[in-house]
Amino acid sequence: MVAYNGDGDTMNITKRTVLKIILGILILGSVSSCAQPTEGSEKHSLSLATEISEPIVTVPPTATQHSVSLPPTQRIFPTISPHQKELFFQQILSENCLLPCYLGIFPGETNIEVAERNLKELGFSSGHLTNPQNDNYKTYSYQINFDDESGNSQHYVYLTTQETRVERVEFEIVGQRHPLLNDNWSVYSTKHVFEQQGLPSRMFIHLGRLGETYSALIVYEDVGVVISNFGLIENENVCFGSFDHNHEAIKVIATRANSELGLYREDDIAPDGSEHWQSIEKILGTSVDEIYEALLTEDQVCYQVLKP
């Protein structure tokens, strides 16, 4: 310590030194007291350490809800553009590609690369293999959405191949009926199919459980074509003809004639020996010949469902 000698500067230095010593003691005491855990502080520290050890991922609530609602295999499909829509319906209505041809694809003739190129030009999604376990036949699915201010419908196409050749073409349209489809898709209505293909080999019908809907199955065995129309029953009547608001969906299977695949898909209900499909005579009290003859002169014919 510097002794007091009456000099003012020395006195000030001594005071500053003492103050520094006292301040140092106070700081050490404060640090020591903070180092001691207070009640509940240790528990909180462990909890925080545990939380930090886990990965922290911040996901917006809407994103979390969206990701949970979609299955892992869900794919997003394109919506057809106005130009592609025009080309699409031009091909649908073309006289050069009547059933069993579809969108320029002829079962038993068209190469899969050519078929996929045709679909891609119309805006369809890329092909998705649906049966990788099958070594002999491969089936690829394609989809495009018709979605605008007029309505929404989904169009699906399935191509089954043997090696590089398309052996079967399947297509279906489901969802809210699009106004354009009522006109353009009428080419696959019962009346227009009768006009194009003639008298069908066989015809079956299935009534929905509540008696509000029906499915009609039209079979042309010689060209390998099976057409399913799904519609509504109004006033206990089933109507055939051009498409109208009663028709909800259609499905067409066109297979190379005499193909080993047969006329029907394995997961479909074939009419032979099935309780699902019933004869026209049993359900409507008429025959295929009578319906065919009537639609040659009428736009629509209706038959009342017989009481069981």
Structure description:
This protein has 308 residues and is of the alpha+beta class. The chain folds into two domains: 103 residues, no CATH class; 120 residues, no CATH class. It has nine helices and eleven strands. The protein has a nine-stranded antiparallel sheet. The chain is globular and about 50 Å long. 23% of the residues are buried. The N terminus is likely disordered.
Give the fraction of residues assigned to helices: 25-40%
Side-by-side strand order of the widest sheet = 1-2-3-4-9-7-6-5-10
Q: Please indicate the percent range of residues in DSSP E strands (runs of 2 or more).
A: 25-35%
Oligomer: single chain
Mean pLDDT level:
76
Count of helical segments? 9
Major pleated sheet? 9 strands, antiparallel
Beginning-to-end CA distance, first to last residue: 121 Å
- The tally of beta strands, per DSSP, is 11
Radius of gyration: 38 Å
Judged by helices, strands and strand pairing, the structural class is: alpha+beta
Order of helices and strands: HHHHHEEEEHHEEEEEEHHE
Poorly predicted regions are 1-15, 27-74
Domain unit count? 2
- Described by the principal axes of the CA atoms, the overall outline is globular
